[in-house]
Amino acid sequence: QVQLVESGGGLVQAGGSLRLSCAASRSRFSINFMGWYRQAPGKQRDFVATITSGGSTDYADSVKGRFTISRDNAKNTVYLQMTSLAPEDTAVYYCNAGQTIWGTQREAWGQGTQVTVSS
């Protein structure tokens, strides 16, 4: 199972932009999809965006048109470009990756990176 390391979080003013990165360690098993989730204080972890190995993407309605997920398969890295950020985007952002390991679906999670948007 891959190990995931996120980076790129920080403090930004409303209307600003940030780019998150998530690097996956090398693995003998292919990564089927990579994605981002977020968890605000006192709330559940919510889906943000995902991208498959073939490049298909999906987004939460709340971020469509503002966030873009992309992936560099050669580097095993996924990115989340966030624009027009709003205070409600404040959360810890987690990267995840899905693999099929010996016929079993496995998901790995990163440690999370804090994004804080000030008004």
Q: Would you kindly provide a written description of the structure presented here, covering whatever features stand out?
A:
- The protein is mainly beta and 119 residues long.
- The protein has no helices and eleven strands.
- The chain has strands at 4-7, 10-13, 18-24, 31-39, 45-52, 57-59, 67-72, 77-82, 91-101, 104-109, 113-118.
- The strands form two sheets. Strands 2, 4, 5, 6, 9, 10 and 11 form a seven-stranded mixed beta sheet that branches.
- β4 (31-39) and β5 form a beta hairpin.
- It is elongated and about 45 Å long.
- The termini are far apart.
- The model has no long low-confidence stretch (mean pLDDT 95).
Secondary structure elements and their pairing?
Elements: E1 4-7, E2 10-13, E3 18-24, E4 31-39, E5 45-52, E6 57-59, E7 67-72, E8 77-82, E9 91-101, E10 104-109, E11 113-118
Parallel strand pairs: 2-11
Antiparallel strand pairs: 1-3, 3-8, 4-5, 4-9, 5-6, 7-8, 9-10, 9-11
> If you compute it from the alpha carbons, what radius of gyration comes out, rounded to the nearest whole angstrom?
14 Å
Distance between the termini: 39 Å
Estimated helix fraction: under 10%
Low-pLDDT parts are none
Number of E strands: 11
Number of helices: 0
Write the H/E string, N to C: EEEEEEEEEEE
**Largest sheet entry:** 7 strands, mixed
**Strand content of the residues, in percent?**
over 45%
Mean pLDDT level = 95
Overall SS class: mainly beta
| Backbone shape | elongated
